[in-house]
Design goal:
This protein is of the alpha+beta class and about 270 residues long. It has 3 helices and 12 strands, in the order αβββββββββββαβα.
Length: about 270
């Protein structure tokens, strides 16, 4: 390599270094302008994919990201530690910042009283596989309450079936409450487990919401014969109220059933 080629090489290297210095200086200047306008860069936790309501946050759903502090939302989270395993209280979109008021630790947090509508009362009734629609009920379902009642006693006893309440919301099945997180953490022998409450069918009671006057009637029946209450399940969009006649043996067998007259006792003529 001759002197001219060497000089050309060094001039090229110098020009490249000078260009890099100019580019770095320009970048720093622009970064300073951006920081002045939008604030310095801050680390926040964002969602890498859509997270559905009541979905557990997994490691691949969140990441740390640098954004200008002017775009940081109140309640943001700065580190990943403690995020995994929590539950989203509301849908979180991809690239959305994870906020503290949108995630919560699984467990019974809300309580039942907040779920009772003003002017209504919560009443708990016992159920089994027959009276409780095979225990396939869940909080939020709407049901009708039907009673099997006996009138009089002995030979004049008559049973009739009457729909007491229509379109009644189920607030809880056992201890699982409507609008509550559908899973809880349990620790057994030092190990942590997550139990899905949506598949829980070990309950023996159902808590419903009803007006106070109807609650009185229902409690009267429960106090005399708690096993006489049955639940019938409705479609979620069916809020109709129907005028239903009570059912008895005649309505089941039909009006044309001939009733056997009661036998009259005959007096015996005992001769002397």
């Amino acid at each position: 390599m001759n002197k001219n080629e060497t000089l050309t090489l060094w001039l090229s290297i110098g020009a490249a270094i000078f260009a890099v210095v100019l580019l770095y200086s320009y970048t720093q200047k622009k970064s300073a302008e951006i920081a002045k306008t939008f604030g310095v860069q801050t680390t926040v936790v964002v969602a890498t994919k859509d997270i559905n309501e009541m979905q557990t946050v997994q490691e691949n759903m969140v990441e740390l990201r640098q954004i200008p502090e002017n775009f940081v939302q109140p309640g943001h989270i700065k580190e990943l530690e403690g995020i995994v395993g929590l539950v989203a209280l509301a849908p979180i979109d991809k690239d959305e910042q994870i906020l503290r008021n949108k995630i919560i630790k699984p467990g019974p947090e809300t309580g039942l009283s907040l779920q009772v509508s003003p002017g209504k009362r919560a009443v708990t009734i016992p159920v089994d596989g027959v009276r409780g629609v095979a225990k396939l009920l869940k909080p939020g379902d709407r049901v009708d309450v039907v009673a099997a009642l006996d009138l009089n006693t002995g030979t004049v006893q008559k049973r009739f079936i009457k729909t007491l309440l229509q379109d009644i919301v189920i607030l809880a099945t056992g201890v699982q409450i409507v609008n509550e997180l559908p899973r809880i953490h349990e620790e057994i022998g030092g190990e942590s487990y997550t139990r899905n409450l949506r598949t829980e069918n070990k309950f023996s009671t159902v808590t419903i919401e009803t007006p106070p006057q109807e609650a009185q009637k229902l409690i009267y029946i429960l106090s005399t014969n708690p096993s006489s209450i049955f639940l019938t399940l409705r479609h979620p969009s069916d809020n109709s109220h129907m005028a239903l006649k009570q059912a008895d043996l005649s309505s089941v067998l039909g009006a044309g059933v001939v009733r056997r007259p009661a036998s009259k006792s005959k007096s015996l003529n005992l001769g002397r």
